[in-house]
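yo

u said u wanted the structure for the complex thing, so here. seqs first:
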Amino acid sequence: MRFFEYEAKEIVRKGGIPTSKGGFATTSEEARARAEEVAGAVVVKSQVLTGGRMKAGGVQFADTPQAAATHSEAILALAINGHDPRGVLVDERVAVKQEYYAGVVWDGIRKQPVMLFSDMGGIDIEEVAEKHPDHVGRGHFSTIHPFSEFQAKQVIAAVGLSGSELNRLVPIVTRLAKLFLRFDMTLAEINPLAQLEDGSFVAVDAHMEMENEARPRQQALLSELGVGDEETRQAREPTEFELAGEAVDAQDHRGVAGNVTEFDGNLGLVIGAGGGSLTLFDAVRAHGGRPANYCEIGGNPSVAKACGLAKLVLSKPGVDKIAVMMSIVSNTRVDIVARGVIKACIELGHDPAEKIAIFRIPGAWEEEGFKILERYGIEYADRSVSLHEAARRAVEKIQGAAATPPASA
Amino acid sequence: MSILIDADTTFLVQGITGREAVNLVRECLDYGAGAKIVGGVTPGRKGRDIHGVPVFDTVAQAVEHHGATIDGSVVTVPPAFTKDAVFEAIENGVKLVVIVTERIPRGDVAQMVELARERGARIIGPNCLGIIVPDVIKMGGIGGPARDAAKSYTPGAVGVISRSGGMTTEMSSTLTAAGLGQSTAVSIGGDAIIGSSYAELMPLFESDQQTEAIVIYTEPGGRMEAELARWVTERNSRLPIVAFMAGRFMDEMPGMSFGHAGTIVEGKEDTASEKIARLAEAGIVVAEEISTIPELVRERIAVSSGSTAG
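structre next:
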């Protein structure tokens, strides 16, 4: 999950790293108050979880509290890439002598965190790494042995820094490495890390992302920052349809029937498991189908949960049919999913044979499942029919249905 | 032959009294020659037995009862306790740890992997279904009940490595139906950091005489495919590789994660299209559909055996 800049800077402060002065505001009056506290020139920055703020006009400079209030009013009303701002950050305009970059990310190949440091701050680090590799220092560090300052020193010295700059930067990069592990971050970036005219360093902007899986044990930090459990902080906000999917999945703790993502098509997908869903979604599109959603079934969900998911998908406006497909199951039971989806059709007043374009789930309890499907006249397939072939048949059926003029039109 | 495990492998199950673990024990005991599950651990449940497997409070007790080092462990404890369970296994001499548990933060996984490295142990997973040597042994839930696993897996010459547990079985079943058996199939897990990547398992398959080709299932997210491509190029591997890439649609949705935690695309190198290009550059065939894999495997085996003969 990604943090807003104002939260990220708070995390930086908690890690013991100095930041530029300023504060968060949700109204122009609050922004004026923050600017008065700073008592000097400020920059007003839109708080959105998307890039391109500067270009969109979401960052403005103000010399007076009144100007800060005026700019805030405009920025608060300005959506950027479809994101409404959470508020504005009113920060002091610091006199920068030189901009640096400091970051920590995971290296999945080495399976360790890696520190990155550059004396070319303020721009995208990937770009620096590509064009000026000698301006980027790197160093992996252990997750079981204590971090030692020399590790930070090596990374900073690698770009040619020495003198008081080096000595003042070592504790900052050390603290960043430590907060990365302590707060279960997947990305901890200070950019720019600014050296001021007096030689001191402050974090001017920060980008922090926390691992979703660690949210339960990071409750203390999250509640201090005021991040609620309901905030998913995905790349886009969940739709009502997706939230309803979460509610279906949360109704009991047996297995998974959720992870719903909304798309704009006519073929509802009741699919699983993790890898199977990815394969099937691609397969439907490869055959020219238009999925109405993505979802995942796994871990042997109850009949009620499979039914709830199928009902949700069937009720989505524009959905003509559903395709019930999974890779070979070993834990999830075929008969239970079959019962769930049939129940969903019947309770919504549909003929299961008409609404279910195809049922392709081979594996555990398949004989029992296929018997039930046969009784309702539903087209089903066993493992001899590939995932792509099943997807093709589903697409063919729905395109056939769409070709005949709808009765109401 | 096989990699990682064989008929003689002894292992324990940590978290053995959980509902899924009880099923897993039954499945493994019933499959092939019958797994040698020499003990289980659930703190506070010492003295019970699960399908005849004795339950202990600690791994040390299980080792003492067995009277010798135990080769492996299947860990199925909740995420908050997994790191401690894996540390316990490794510090008691276990050399192969299969972690089934999902939703473990990367910080914990990195610690487990680092300790394993220092102690000369290997981790498979987390978020995986384990390892299967067709008709011989399975270690983990892979393939499901013995009767179902027997439908999907047959002995043969193809090594299977997959980031998805279910797709390990789907691909193996497709190979089986086409008359191509498997030497060993490994579900390596769907997380961003895992104990053993493709490139880390390749040397084992490389030295396994039974294995003639490799089939991998892959997804967006991470650099594991780039690592494999590099390994194949540098080592001039004798084994042809056929890959299947799922989740191509995710390229249009940066920042979103689907299927497995590890699929989150964090850089331009980890998109599906970028990976396909990288694999192809290294001479790895990328199949458009699962159903075309057997034919591609046959072709590639013919080509590589022809080139060794010539």
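The longest helix of chain A spans residues 163-182. Chain A has 15 helices and 15 strands.
cya
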